[in-house]
Amino acid sequence: MQTTSTQTIEEQVKHVQHYARTAVTAELDWRIAQLQQVKRMLIENENAFIQGLHQDLAKPKQEAWTTEIGYVLSEIKHTVKHLKKWMKPRPVSTPLVAQPAKSYIRPEPLGTVLIIGAWNYPIQLTLGPLVAAIAAGNCVVIKPSELAAHSSELLAKLIPQYLDNQGICVIEGAVDETTELLQQPFDHILYTGGEAVAKIVMSAAAKHLTPVTLELGGKSPCIVDSTADIEVAAARIAWSKWTNAGQTCVAPDYLIVERSQVDKLVDTLKAKISAFYGKSIETSPDYGRIINQAHYQRLTHYLTEQPVLVGGQVNPESRYIAPTIVVDPNPDSALMQEEIFGPILPIICIDQIAQAIPIIKQKPKPLALYLFTQDTELEHKVVSQTQSGNVCINDGMMFLANPSLPFGGVGNSGMGQYHGKTGFDTFSHLKSIMKRANWIDPVLRYPPFSKLKLGLIKRLL
Ligand code: NAD
User: Fold this and answer.
1) Is 309 helix (H, G, I), strand (E, B) or coil?
2) How far is the CA of 421 from the centre of ligand 1 (A)?
3) Angstrom distance (rounded) from CA 225 to CA 258
4) CA of 117 to the centre of ligand 1 (A)
5) Cα–Cα distances in Å, from 251 out to 57, 218, 237, 452?
6) Which ligand 1 atom is at minimum distance from the Cα of 145?
7) What are the start-end ranges of the E strands in 49-164?
8) Any bridge partners for residue 92, and if so which?
9) Spatial separation of the C-alpha atoms in residues 137 and 27, rounded to whole Å
10) Minimum-distance ligand 1 atom for the alpha carbon of 143
């Protein structure tokens, strides 16, 4: 992979920042033109993107299209359709004390934003935030993850060909390049990745008082109760867990299942694995691979300490790890303490559904929480008594298909949100404006003060 010389990073960022000050990017026409160009880039280079994703993660073609290319195309479609409306001033009411006046909120570009992407969805996690940042009228510096080297290289090659180079650039590289980037004063940083680096990003941003959106991960739980439709639940859990070989921030990390359901659920999950990937999963073109040796070693190490019920087959050369199920894992093991981020699915068996919420609450707040049930009382309890970035009832990561739902974590799983209009708002400054009328100017607020004036003000407020 090529890397951008650290010496030129400051200069490149300054160049983009200079363009941000020209206000060209604030125009609706510029925003729409750039969004259409992102779309063109994806459509005209679909095969190259699919090939890059295959080289990086052995992503199957359909998965690459739906979760990366198609996902970004649908964000663009939604954004282009609504952008004019989102950009309009938003009138708000004015209280009596400030009358006569008009009050409104004007969304404005922040300036120049930095997007630091992660490797697991290298196209979605760079171009998705890019769409929101452009929509909000910003200049953008993109730093794709070096671990998905082919995708990073492709973005670095194509973005300058399709987008306005004055306002949008790609910096390629790893820690040194990101460190250099983080020394620059940005107007916003959106980082996707793990917690440890998020702390580095946030402390670097603090030096410039740069606001951050941190899209992190965590252990996303999935509850299956005795009323759940097991056939449907198993298909949806299997799809959410084994897409991208489990390397999805919102994949169900572990299941919590009522003991009476465990055997049936495991059997049905096994049947779904066979139905999805056939008898020889390793040769299936529809199942991905682990990104690199370090992650492969981390994941296979988890298996050495657990009784594996389903799967467990591995191949170090191709970094293959079969869809794997572990029942009753040791709660103190690394598997149950760290985010798995791979194709291993532990199942915690419980005797009563009431035990599920305390198990979830012992751990840091997760990015997503899933619940398979037909019991609306349980649904209400789980939603109201737990904290997580997002919830999906009776499905897994399907909630991501709705651009009207803000996406982001809470606590250790992140801060800030994007997708759809929320992404537009994240990358906008919502400027408050009040315009007062001159035809009347009550003297209540002006000195000299008096008991009467104070009394009237107290009534008006
Ligand atoms: P990663 O290794 O690709 O790192 C992310 C980015 O940080 C990269 O661009 C990398 O260059 C940069 N980076 C790495 N080390 C750095 C350092 N020392 N200083 C500065 N920058 C540095 O990704 P990762 O951390 O392995 O990502 C996996 C994590 O991301 C998981 O926890 C997952 O749940 C989370 N994730 C979250 C989302 C989301 O949308 N919330 C999406 C995908 C992944």
Assistant:
1) strand
2) 24
3) 6
4) 7
5) 16, 10, 9, 63
6) 9
7) 90-92, 101-109, 112-116, 139-143
8) 103
9) 7
10) 9
Print burial letters for 394-421: b (CB count within 10 Å at least 16), e (below 16). bbbbebbeebeebbbbbebbbbbbbbbb
How far is the centre of ligand 1, averaged over its atoms, from the C-alpha of 32 (Å)?
A: 29
CB 116 within 8 A of CB 144: no
Q: Is the CB of 339 under 6 A from ligand 1?
A: yes
Distance in angstroms (rounded) separating the CA atoms of residues 267 and 269? 5
Across the chain, what does the average pLDDT equal? Answer: 97
Q: What is the spatial distance between Cα 252 and Cα 388, in angstroms, rounded to a whole number?
A: 13
- Burial class of 185 by CB neighbour count within 10 A (0 to 12, 13 to 18, 19+): middle
> Looking at the predicted structure, is the pLDDT value of residue 305 above 80?
no
Q: Is 203 exposed, middle or buried (0-12, 13-18, 19+ CB in 10 A)?
A: exposed
Residue nearest to atom 9 of ligand 1 (CA): 145
pTM of this prediction?
A: 0.96
Smallest CA separation from ligand 1 atom 42, residue: 249
Nearest CA to ligand 1 atom 24: 193
Q: Ligand 1, residues 125, 178, 426: which to mutate, most atoms within 8 A of Cβ?
A: 178
Ligand 1 centroid vs 86 CA: distance in angstroms?
30
**Structure-token match 């890397």, residue found:** 3
Q: Residue 101 in contact with residue 436, Cβ under 8 Å?
A: yes
Catalytic residues: 215, 249
- State in Å: Cα 151 to ligand 1 middle: 15
Nearest alpha carbon, ligand 1 atom 34: 217
Q: Summarize pLDDT for 121-150 with one digit per residue, the tens.
A: 999 999 999 999 999 999 999 999 999 999
Residue-wise pLDDT tens digits, 15-46? 999 999 998 999 999 999 999 999 999 999 99
What ranges make up the beta strands (E) of 67-160? 90-92, 101-109, 112-116, 139-143
